[in-house]
Amino acid sequence: MVRGKSGVVVQVDPDGRHPITQGSPPATQRLMRVEGNGNIVVAILLLVLGTGAAATALLGPLVAGIIRYRTSEGAIDQIVGGDVAALLLVFPISILAGVLVWRGHRAGPVLALSPAAYALYMYSQLALGGDVFRYEGNSDKFFPLYLGLFVLSGFIAVRSWSLIDRTKLPSASRRLTRAIGFFLLVVALFLAFGLHLPGLIDAWSAEPSSTEYLADPVVFWLVKFMDLAMVVPVLAVVGIGLIRRSARLAFLRYAAIGWSALLGSSVAGMALMMQLNGDPAGTLANTIAFGAFALIGLVLAALVHRPLFETP
Length: 312
Prior knowledge:
- The chain is mainly alpha-helical.
- It has two domains: 1-165, no CATH class; 172-204 and 211-217 and 227-312.
- It is 71% helix and 3% strand.
- The chain contains ten helices and three strands.
- A three-stranded antiparallel beta sheet has the order 1-2-3, with no helix packed on it.
- The radius of gyration is 22 Å and the shape is globular.
């Protein structure tokens, strides 16, 4: 318990986040109650997001097969790989972030950005990527589930961003920040020129031969659009900013590397499943590349988030 300059006695709770004042003005007390309620709402929504991600994976072709996607077998292999990542990473991270936000821990809202960004990307593709005229299935009946997870993720991302107290964040390691910047830039370049450009050239040719394009044109163009319009520009801008030590972009290292680690793990799972099932679109080079990106991303994400759990 301390006495402020204005003479108001302030008692700080054990985690140091929410001050408890004696004789504080009513407006201050209302602000404290609103912030506390906001934490509880975000915490509950993170628990719902994690449960929804796990339920979607379990209901899909990975386990129960209740959700039957209107895609080719090759695309279903990719969905299965993404479901594995959702169960092993997105689900526990969302639950952990929810618990930390509930307790008012400084790492909670920072950690919440990663699964929220991942869900925005992934569930929009699951909602829009099917072809109802070419393939049998019922995934379109689960559109409300994907829509709900998408809206939920957007709210979590915006609200978590506002809950982060940047004054309580640890100082960034220059070496680690630059390493994250170079990693994000390499991933962006690989996605743009190593993965998507050859597919685009083939699709624009007189006689396309790409299995992914011919089997699932809707999924093909949706992934190309989202990656080239969102993933590549964001990773490139943040990566260059971190390399140049931009103070305004340094804070984005948490969300960018966390999102990249989850997305890279999901794509690595997709590539591995395609390789194991003998999909013609699956290559050993892509499996190794995405596996390496996923491993490096997870290590960098763990290193940059670890100081948040240390005592300030």
